[in-house]
Amino acid sequence: MKKLTLVLAFAVMLKSLFSQDPQFSQFYSNYLYLSPSFAGLSVNNRIAFNYRVQWPEIAHGYNTYSVSFDKYIEKFRSGLGALVMQDQAGTGKLRSLNIGLQYSFDIKMTEKWHFRPGLHLMYTERAINFEDLLWNDQISASGNSATSAEVVPMDNIGDIDCSVSGLTYSDRFWFGVGVDHLLRPTQSFYYYDEADGNTGHVPVKYTVYGGTKFITSEKLLRPIPTTIQLAFLYRQQEQFRQLDLGVYWYRHPFVLGFWYRGIPLYKEVFNRDAFTMLTGLKMKNLSVGYSYDFTMSKLITQTGGSHEISLSYSFRMKPIKHKPKMMPCPDF
To answer: Quick one: which of 9, 65, 16, 15 has its CA closest to 242?
Structure first.
């Protein structure tokens, strides 16, 4: 009965999360996935890798990978980026693959404030292994049948998508917005004669994020400054809403972070999701982070939480003449 309850709860969550994108707890480490305005925001070329395993105690849970690269083009005050991400879950290996290119442009509004619009164009593909699925007409008291009368549709579907964003920042503050899935790509494995009859379109997602940075002054007995950053991330996709509130503590080379995912005082199913702890190392050219999500629902003893690893490496092929203004947001 305990296992049956867990399976039913997982099925309800899958239905509720059907229209939601994959999420990362270390979203500032996966900056190109958060917003195309981050493309080329660093003076160095950057390569980033992120891996997230969600609910490892549940068989065939979510596994999400992403690899990105971005660089700053000094001559045009622009940034270019490339992002590849794959998400996979379930016995049928339901997976989503996104491959995209990004562009951003730096606009100096005042001596203290900059603004960066961003654009993300991508190819998105959704696939599943129908041979690994068990249909209801295969289940019987005498045992599972090897064949099914279910009509198997397409096992993969591809489409194009587009996202836009805007980011403004100074030495201490940053604030950004993003709109994803402007083309509402299809994710249905069934063919529809009329576009209006297709209910498998990805809904538009809205993102708002920001924060502030505090730096303690250097002292004789404490020559290394300490940085504290407060940040938030709000996402809405159809009726689903989610808010991340957190704080980062950094003193070279160590980083600690604490996050709460959910909307306080807002009573919605699956809204109070998790509490996240982060630890990492941030060096001159290399950043490594690990985070763990503590599940806050009744499934806390069954899911195993969520693990996430991030790795970022920065480098330059040749020196830059005019160093662009850096924004103060964290790397994790």
So the answer is: 16
Output the CA torsion 26→27→31→35 (10° steps).
Answer: 180
Residue 218's pLDDT is 62
Closest CA to 21 of 233, 258, 301: 233
Give the model's pLDDT for residue 295.
Answer: 85
Say what the pLDDT of residue 290 is: 97
Is residue 92 in a domain?
yes
Q: Are the C-beta atoms of 98 and 123 separated by less than 8 Å?
A: yes
The total number of structural domains in the chain stands at 1
Check if the beta carbon of residue 58 is closer than 8 Å to that of residue 304. yes
Per-residue tokens: 49? 């890798």
The closest of 136, 193, 206, 225 to 164, measured between CA atoms, is 206
Comparing CA positions, the residue from 218, 240, 236 lying closest to residue 227 is 218
| CATH code of residue 101 | 2.40.160.40
Residue 322 lies in a domain: no
CB-based burial, 131-141: b 16+ in 10 Å, e otherwise: eebeeeeeeee
283: buried, middle or exposed (CB in 10 Å: 19+, 13-18, 0-12)? exposed
Is 77:112 a contact under the CB 8 Å cutoff? Answer: no
Strand positions, DSSP E, 238-301: 240-251, 254-261, 274-282, 286-295
Domain span including residue 32: 2-134+150-315
Torsion sign, CA atoms 13, 14, 16, 20: positive
Residue whose C-alpha is closest to residue 289's, from 10, 25, 59:
25
SS3 of residue 187 by DSSP: coil
Per-residue pLDDT tens for 105-118?
Answer: 999 999 899 999 99
Count of CB atoms situated within 10 Å of the CB of 208: 14
pLDDT score for 272: 63
Per the document, the length of the chain is 332
Residue 11 lies in a domain: yes
